[in-house]
Hints:
The chain is mostly helical. Helix content is 70%, strand content 5%. The protein contains 10 helices and 3 strands. It has helices spanning 9-21, 33-39, 44-56, 75-99, 102-116, 124-142, 145-164, 173-176, 179-188, 191-213, and strands spanning 30-31, 60-63, 67-70. The protein has a 3-stranded antiparallel beta sheet. A hairpin with a 3-residue loop joins strand 2 and strand 3. The protein is globular, with a radius of gyration of 19 Å. The protein starts with 8 loop residues before the first helix and ends with a helix.
Amino acid sequence: MVEAITYSSEEIYEILKNRIIQLDYEPGQILNEKDIASEFNVSRTPIRKVFEQLKNNKLLNIIPRYGAQVAPIDFLYMKSVFEVVRELNGFAANLAAKKITPEKIEELEAILEKIKNYDIEKDYTEIIIQDQNFHKIIFESAANPCLIDILYGLQMHTERMWIYAKPEIGEINLFLNTMPDIVKALKSGNSEQASNYAKNHTDIFVERIKQEFF
């Protein structure tokens, strides 16, 4: 007899969050509290707690007497997110250029190598995940806990948007034309260049999709 896996609220939150971000749960989809509690072999109480966390992070809408709805993508809100992310990504890269370790540079370079070997059509979601991992390394290298908290909170929305925007991002060079410059600037310790390249990386993607969505 196989023993049932026990999930903590934190684990359930991460699983549901990733399903929303990666569009396994589509925008507008209704999540049934009873079904999800059954899936994870828990009572409804921790599921309600997780739903509340997801609501606070703007990934779920709780509708009284109706249920939990996966938040539709709010393009006006996303426009405001990208305006903030652009500046904070630049600031994080500026700080990281002064503090990043050779080991972290190697991790960034390894991500670039992975992306070079991906197919934009077949591996698009994995490319976006690696792009987000790339930025997380820079955030952490900035070594500013307040900045990290803010950027992690925003990143879940940018990642979801990039996955949603797949039809508009049809070439691998959107990644490979900008990310190596960021690494080069970080490696040389040029904080001003690192900041500018990080902002440019965001600008190129936003420019590609803004005519369609914003």
